[in-house]
Amino acid sequence: MTTALSWIKADETAKEALVRILTERPLVVLPPPLHRLPLRVGNIVELVGPSPSAKTLILIQAAINCILPKEWKGVQYGGLERAVFFVDLDCRLDVLSVSRALERRIIEANGSSMKRNGNEYEKELFEACMRRFLYTRCYNSFEFLATLKTLHYQLQKDKKNQGSAAYMLIIDSIGAFYWMDRALPSSSTGSNNRKILSLQTVAESIVREIQRLLLVHPMLVLAAKSAAFGDKQSATEVIRHSGKRTDEKSSDSRGPRSLPHRDYMPSVWQSFVSHRVLLRASDGENKHQNHPTFFTEWLSPPLNFSDSYTINDDGLLVIL
How far, CA to CA in Å, does 85 sit from each of 131, 199, 294? Predict the structure, then answer.
């Protein structure tokens, strides 16, 4: 009671409150091509695109931007120095690719000073950053739900060890178990008044667990999802059979024959997403040095422009 009264009576100026909020929940600008809007904890960002469109690579770059410090021994890295929890539902992420991408960022930031001073302190920085990269993989929705339910205790333990809370929850990809869950029986009530798991109830449980998690551990959520494209007739047919609807269509004529994007996830997840970015492959004629070109389109909130990017021979994302 005394603690509650002291908290209520505490004086805090608007400037002090703003500094505290921005320190605890800083705005972050993700690396290109997701750099157009500043984001903060509590935002649910969905990255939608066909395979391949470098969705995982974009997620890795966002994670590295989070685990790197802002400054280390006089060298600017521009990171947040916060932990990232990466949930691999596709079960295809090679953590070695994360470490290699991190090494490249450290080398690029150091430039000639790395050759001059050696790489001992860069190795120390690399190890500190990798300790902030928390990784797990799940093979079905039930394992994913179990991970979300126990994530609170893991993040709490890591916060004590790291001294700072995790800033980012990455899910790759949220629609990985769609067809497995769709094969579950329709939602109904059993003999013990317990709901039978279905695509809808699983999606509701996932959203509910993420909401509960964010109440205790405010984080920015990034979720990749494979895109489904088709003409108007085929999209209508799929929506009619699946019982879902979507009004998201692309106006970017540079996309693959301007086919509309249709959302196959249950509405409970669609309404949960606060930001949605669509990745589109260009037509076969639009290439950059014989590499396919991709375009980004912000669906939510809608923006009137798009960015283009490609993947070079080294597997690096290059903004055009």
Answer: 11, 25, 27
**In this predicted model, which residue has the larger pLDDT, 4 or 213?**
213
Cβ atoms of 280 and 250 closer than 8 Å: yes
Q: For the chain, how many helices (H) and strands (E)? A: 11, 14
| Least confident residue range of 148-157, 193-202, 300-309 | 193-202
Q: What is the pTM of this model?
A: 0.80
Do the strands 133-137 and 84-88 form a parallel or antiparallel pair, or are they unpaired?
parallel
Nearest to 282 by CA among 258, 312, 311: 258
CA distances from 266 to 69, 142, 180, 226, 242 (A): 38, 17, 14, 14, 9
Domain boundaries, the chain: 37-176+204-319
Quick one: CATH architecture of 37-176+204-319? 3-Layer(aba) Sandwich (3.40)
Q: How many CB atoms lie within 10 A of CB 138?
A: 20
Q: Which residues have CB under 8 Å from 76's CB, separation 6+?
A: 70, 109
CA 76/CA 110 separation, integer angstroms: 8
Say which amino acid occupies 182: R
Q: Taking a C-beta distance cutoff of 8 angstroms, is the pair 253, 278 a contact?
A: no
Under 8 Å CB-to-CB from 197, ≥6 apart: which residues? Answer: 181, 184, 185, 187
Per DSSP, which regions of the chain are E strands?
A: 44-49, 71-72, 75-76, 84-88, 133-137, 168-172, 220-226, 228-229, 261-262, 275-281, 287-288, 291-300, 308-311, 317-319
Categorise residue 273: left if φ over 0, alpha if ψ from -120 to 50, beta otherwise.
beta
CA dist 208 and 126 (Å) reads: 35
